[in-house]
Amino acid sequence: MNLSNFQRFKRFLIDERPPNGRDERLLMEQAGGTTVYYAPFEFVNSAARITLVGITPGPTQMLNACSAARSALLAGATDADALRQAKLTGAFSGEPMRSNLVRQMNHWGIPRWLGLQDSAELFDSATRLLQTTSLLRYPVFQDGKPYAGNPSMMRHPMLRKYLNEHFVREFDAAPDALFVSLGPMVQSVLQDLIDEGQIDRRRVVMGMLHPSGNCTYRINYLVGPRTGPVPHATNAASYDQGLAAFRAAHVESSK
Fold first, then answer.
1. Considering the domain boundaries, does residue 211 fall inside one?
2. pLDDT for the residue numbered 254
3. Does residue 255 register a pLDDT over 80?
4. Domain enclosing residue 33, as ranges
């Protein structure tokens, strides 16, 4: 676990004036309207069985991770323990994001595959099995708004650097984990990395939706009885294809 960025920004995390939002003290790099801020997301669980992949940490996750690391450090925790607590607290935190994620994983049969009762355990008593990550490890903003895929991180020199230096290396650092793409943007980038030969397709799970609040009505439909018309901009076929492939490969064999 490379702690160089953590060491660079640690003093601001424990400053008497806590970081708040997009604090200029946490600015890592910028190019035009694209800005990258620091948040303590370096922890990698190399023993994970499942890795959940988002685009980039959002403002809520950024603030929660910084607050968790600050509290841990001020309580005397080691750097490694503070980073672990920050990742567990901040990753996919906030509602309805966490609930949307858990409901999808339950629908796919992930608890059966991992020998759990509920996917919520992955954020509580079964954290040993979980790694959470993003294609872009640190929070990225575009023109002041959370980065949502434009400009393309595959073609933007600064963003491609972060993708290669962190995510691609993290894929190799958790060799027994399946990497679950959350949303079409993540799926597209993972497919590009597969096509380039940088990551192994056999360890990538496609089809799940991003758990943001904007997708709640789609997730409600997909994991529910599916009565009524398909909601706007909902790709049920892609979701069902991914679900069927995952269940056939991992859930049915675990019965």
1. yes
2. 63
3. no
4. 15-254
